[in-house]
């Protein structure tokens, strides 16, 4: 039942003040080039592999860095003996704990003996080694299965126990091998290492010998100008460790090592990715657009120029991706569908239409990347593999970008085909899980937001999504109600996604569910105008991350939409 809570400044719930502080904070974080840099949580896996790389490269030269990283690992062991996926946020993860054990055993065995033992006890008490990909028996075999490789490098496992990485995959046709997409750099580097360290049949040794120079050439083509691959410290470390152990690809080793040295944090840790600068710059503009005309905002003119400057104007040859897309960051991020779509939506808000050459190229790029089933994946079309499966969240952003730039709606159009994909994959209860964020709130909210963008909130799929979100709100007003991946409890990110989409779908600002969500968000704001992020971003399996500007920008966007729906549009501007 709706409650009559709107009608005067006294019933504003403190939203205007919260938004004013949040906007001021955002502009205080803006870079000179108009963009924003976020903070991704530090990662146990990246830190452990990064430290092993520095020690292999030159233990004495990098001793101070290694010591700082080891101190970070020791300081971030949780009370239960495990290590987390993101900073020291709960919950502890057996997989992450196995990487911390490898680094401590390899680099500080005697001094960390007690910590190592507590870590092993945590793993054994939380599913055992079979829950860690590739570690033992018939446990999960999904990529990267890098924990047993790290253990073998430090002597905790024999090299024969490493999960096989097939360097000969490079000999497959590109359309087939590229389906592995973002995992391929690690597979090739570690495959080269295994080909030189493990015995195999003569035919396979011959294939590996043919594959090695092609794999090294591919890796060189994937390196960014800063030596990184996907701006991912974990990948740079795996590439370095593989090639260093094999004694080949010295130039690639040095590029990867330089990337690690350049991106280690002062506290000795590394995040899973350096940052998501292009993505969070767009999310920030989307939030600010709820409070006024961003196309006429002088402070956002350099933002538009930054986004235009980061478009891929040449093909990305390692994966045969054409020119025209955008990545999540530069210079070693890879062009992909979701951030291309979000950039195009942002450029529309910054005053650029489909008549602009960059926008026209981006729209053409998006249309060319649609899968046969009507969906969009990130990098490789028509793949069913881990990171390039069709994704509701990715597809939602693409549909909205096409719609905002005048895309047609007919059943045979890209939008029409994508909506049929939505109908097929939506679960009977209305939920739609997303590939890149945990559980179902993100995907379900993005699906509902898409139908709202299309003016189709009465569509059965939209109705089911709205009903699922309302049925899965916590009593305190937050989302999610239940959790499969990560820690229980409401999060700023998921609450903001759900709140925004429900408001876009026409749920009144005075509705009890809406008011409870707004109160919860306002109550969670920190004194400096920020919100504390939670590890809801999902790379694969249970490897989650948190991001401060994802939490901040989406919370602000949801509150801005509420102000408009409640009759106070643009209040803080």
TrEMBL record:
Residues 20-130 form the Squalene cyclase N-terminal domain. InterPro entries: SQ_cyclase_C, SQ_cyclase_N, Squalene_cyclase, Terpenoid_cyclase/PrenylTrfase. It comes from Kibdelosporangium persicum. This is Squalene--hopene cyclase. SUPFAM superfamilies: Terpenoid cyclases/Protein prenyltransferases. Belongs to the terpene cyclase/mutase family. Gene3D superfamilies: 1.50.10.20. Pfam families: SQHop_cyclase_C, SQHop_cyclase_N. Keywords: Repeat. Pathway: Secondary metabolite biosynthesis; hopanoid biosynthesis. Residues 281-533 form the Squalene cyclase C-terminal domain.
